[in-house]
Amino acid sequence: MSAIIALLSSDIVQTVLIGAALLGAISGMLGTFAVLRRQSLLGDALSHAALPGVCLGFLVAGGRDLGSVMLGAFVTGALAALIMMLIARRTTLKTDAALGIVLSVFFAVGIVLLTVIQTQGGSGSLGLMTFLFGQAAAILRSDLWIMGGVGLGALVLVLALWKEFKLVSFDADFARSQGFPVTLLEAVLTVMVALAIVVGLQLVGVILMVALLIAPAAAARQWTNSLGGMVLLSAAIGALSGAGGALVSATTRGLATGPVVVLIATVIVMISLLIAPGRGLVWQAAATRRARARISDGRVLATLQGFAQMHDDARYPSERGMLQVALGAKPPAATLASLESRGLIRSVTHPPETTPHWELTKAGHSEAATLSGTDHKKQSSE
Question: Is 341 exposed, middle or buried (0-12, 13-18, 19+ CB in 10 A)?
């Protein structure tokens, strides 16, 4: 415990921890709108499109100046977003095709520029590779103010345009028919995502930034149907992933912070996909089993009731063989045992036959009527 406290007292660890949490919260909040607009690939395209801007910022500044690099990344990211929107709106290509084109072309240009810079030599050019995978240790206290400013600005913008963003995210066509400037609103959301990507380049890098945008939102979507709840939960998951990744990286020698952050976010997504109430795979499997059991119960009850009505005897005992012929298969013993334990049927003898027989109880007749959706006359008392 003392070792952990000593570790957390380090200025470098504190800076990385706060920066990772801020970046995760910003990414989670803005990634929600990308997920709801079905533009998860948007973050990937913009993060890859930031690479040529990183290189251009380096060339213009003549060195690895963080301000110039981030400005260049934002410019090329915004340009890529504009080109993507133009392709999707002015051609017959769909949005996913436009995103794929922008991603590959801009990243290819970035790799070419990166190669040119490295062939020129110089120690500063070596640091550009950290923007591919991130280097959390390079974050400074001054960078936290930039992250905080971007996060605060994004939060204010989201709150100010909450109704508009909500409508555009769920039904852009309806929003357009109501006179909302859908194109402008989508452009604002895209610029905000580009800002989040630029802020996260140094921590997570170009390659992994899309995961930090999409994973928290994907996990949050499993737990809530409310946009407000999804935004808050996604931001919390992002902050938790960032802080957790920073702590694990700080306590384990040789682990880079960015990949660990992404892995933690991915684990949260997997857990959410499995156990989220109502939507998780475990819940869905249980619901499917319950539905199948209900169908099987209903078939057995309806068959027993049919025999009772056929013989004009509410307590008519039916033998297993009769049920098998009527159902086309032998009724599962588990189904019969379940119905009997719930008081819907009971096992009876029917001399001189020695095979087991079952008859419906009063509750069984009522349940059969409910499952069949028909109204039956009141059955005779037991």
Answer: exposed
Query: Alpha-carbon distance 155 to 258, whole Å?
Result: 24
The C-alpha atoms of residue 269 and residue 289 are separated, in whole angstroms, by 24
SS3 of 8, please?
A: helix
Helices 162-170 & 141-160 angle (0-180, nearest 10): 80
CA dist., res. 261 & res. 242, Å (int): 5
d(CA 218, CA 265): 10
As a whole number of angstroms, the distance between CA 223 and CA 101 comes to: 33
Cross-sheet strand order for the sheet of 353-360: 318-319, 353-360, 345-350
Measure the CA–CA gap between 310 and 307, rounded to whole angstroms: 5
Cβ burial of 375 (10 Å; 0-12, 13-18, 19+) is exposed
Tell me the pairing of strands 345-350 and 318-319. Answer: unpaired
Give the other-Cβ count within 10 Å of 252's Cβ. Answer: 9
- Residues in a beta bridge with 345: 360
User: How confident is the model over 60-88, as a mean pLDDT?
Assistant: 84
pLDDT at residue 381 tops 80:
no
3 state SS of 181? coil
Res 375: pLDDT:
42
Instruction: With a cut of 80, say whether residue 65 has pLDDT above it.
Output: no
Please compute Rg for the chain using Cα positions.
31
Q: Is the overall model pTM greater than 0.85, yes or no?
A: no
Average pLDDT over every residue of 110-130 = 75
Helix axes 257-275, 209-221, angle to 10 degrees: 20
**Measured CA distances, 265 to 14, 71, 131, 153, 164 (Å):** 20, 28, 20, 24, 29
Q: What is the DSSP letter of 359?
A: E
For 317, the 3-state DSSP assignment is coil
Asked if residue 377 has pLDDT above 50, the reply is no
Q: Which helix (H) or strand (E) holds 319?
A: strand 318-319
Domains in the chain, please, with CATH?
2-255 (1.10.3470.10), 283-372 (1.10.10.10)
Q: What is the mean pLDDT of residues 20-37?
A: 91
Q: What is the largest CA-CA distance in the chain?
A: 103
Peptide bond into 277 cis (omega under 30): no
